[in-house]
Design goal:
By secondary structure, the chain is mainly beta. It is built from three helices and 16 strands. It has a single domain, classed as Immunoglobulin-like (Sandwich). The longest helix is centred in the first third of the chain and has 17 residues. The protein is globular and about 60 Å long.
């Protein structure tokens, strides 16, 4: 009986993989004026800096972190693309895992980190000095006097913006999605693989530009092509 059950389960899983489809997409950058980077609005930031003394404050002003002032970036690389539930209300699986947001040379790495609901975020500090992570969206995501490695769990869907109270240009985002079918773009191109057949809402979120969404139908063992405007 156990062998029969295992064989049947394996067969069903194999069928799902074989008959799964794929979404291949491109992001078209339509926005003519791109907004500037966010700034830390923590009302208690001065109190935090006061704890570290003038030497640290002067260093932070001179070496605020973040990207170099004239760095060229492709805003499409910061978009998060993900699937919502099927139109019939079926739920897609969300697998718990741990992702890492690093801090190195006064920068968050990566600038945008997507993660499925229920997962954990490990903050690591590779610098030889403290960082002071501030999240205006959730107090449980803040990490004061951060060194080494600390783990937090975001408890809802959506955006968690991150700053460092010491280094004013450090800024990043954790974005929580409802299931395992998510990705980011590279040069405006993205792919979602092993998608079960069905009709979904494909959504795109961006930290500074309006997102978009559209319906997409995935058929078994085929590629659905989409274009999203940003």
């Amino acid at each position: 009986m156990n062998r029969f059950f295992l064989a049947t389960s394996f067969f069903l899983i194999l069928c799902q993989v074989v008959w799964a489809g794929e979404i291949s997409g491109e992001i078209l950058l339509k926005s003519k004026e791109l907004p500037g980077r966010a700034t830390n609005s923590n009302p208690n930031r001065k109190k935090v800096l006061k704890k570290y003394g003038m030497k640290v404050i002067r260093s932070a002003r001179q070496n605020g972190g973040g990207l170099p002032p004239n760095a060229k970036v492709d805003e499409r690389d910061y978009a998060v693309i993900f699937l919502d539930s099927e139109s019939d209300g079926a739920k897609l699986k969300a697998t718990e895992k741990t992702v890492t947001v690093d801090q190195e040379q006064r920068r968050f790495i990566e600038h945008v980190t997507p993660v499925a609901l229920g997962s954990r975020v490990r903050f690591t500090n590779q610098d030889s000095f403290f960082h002071h992570i501030y999240c205006p969206d959730a107090a449980n995501m803040c990490v004061p006097e951060h060194s080494g490695s600390v783990t937090r769990r975001p408890d809802r869907l959506g955006k968690f913006e991150l700053f460092c109270d010491i280094h004013p240009l450090m800024n990043a985002y954790v974005y929580v999605v409802p299931n395992d079918f998510y990705t980011t773009a590279k040069d405006g191109k993205f792919r979602l693989k092993n998608v079960p057949p069905g009709t979904y809402t494909l959504r795109m979120w961006h930290p500074r530009l309006p997102g978009s969404s559209q319906a997409v139908t995935v058929k078994g063992d085929s590629v659905s092509t989409v274009k999203l405007g940003l």
